[in-house]
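Quick one: structure tokens for this chain, please?
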Amino acid sequence: MGVAEASFSFSLCADDFALSPGVSRGILEALDAGRLSATSVMTTRPSWPKGARALSQFKGKADIGLHLNLTLGAPLSAMPKFAPSGYLPGIHHVLKAAQKSELPEAEIRREISRQLDSFCDHFGAAPDFVDGHQHVQILPQIRHWLFECLEKKGFSGKTWLRNSGDRPLQILRRGVELKKALGIAWLARGFAREAARRGFSTNYGFSGFSSFDPCRDYAADFAAYLRAPGGRHLIMCHPGYCDEELVSADPVTLTRERELSFLLSPAFKKLIEENRAKLSRFSAV
């Protein structure tokens, strides 16, 4: 009996490459094992230049994108209004200011441009896609400045964008982190429509929201992420190894190793086969 044809394909993207050397090492292992089809890069982090060289072996084999960062660590440019301490503010501050249209336009436009330039300079190519740390790419004001920066750099029609929202019914059918997923979907309303109007494609269908609780069964959660897939379904994940730099920078630590362990296990491959699913690169479609 032949192998059953896949009933749907999806992209599996590891966020936070270059957040720390341990995170990057775990993502590189998963890419090498063929368990990921994309990863997004934090170009603000100290390990990005070295990480870019290691990641270059996957150019054209996986989608490599920019993980726009406006909420963790230090920015690449001076931001006296947005980050007066020299460190980026937390997501709650950014969200509140975005909803009130109070973000400093010039500073954030410049930082978006600097992060894109750092990606291109070190990786030697434009990003296949752009997403955002803590989904900042979908926020009011920021989304418009991102679109315009990408257009100015000539990336229209070449770079796709992550739409972090999905339809409420699909979110409810998965039943994982409902409050977070529905809240992000509300913030993302209109994002895909505006992106398409400007010549950027997006994913259609999105899952992977996590409580980052090390006691949860990640395999069971991943099975839920595969439910009710969209026509261009994207699942985010956060694998990696925990190291001192990660512990000092981000609260999400132990769950990264659990995610990586699952992705590299036979159980992951079996789950994909049982769901007649197939990993795919959006840029290759």
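The chain has a mean pLDDT of 96.
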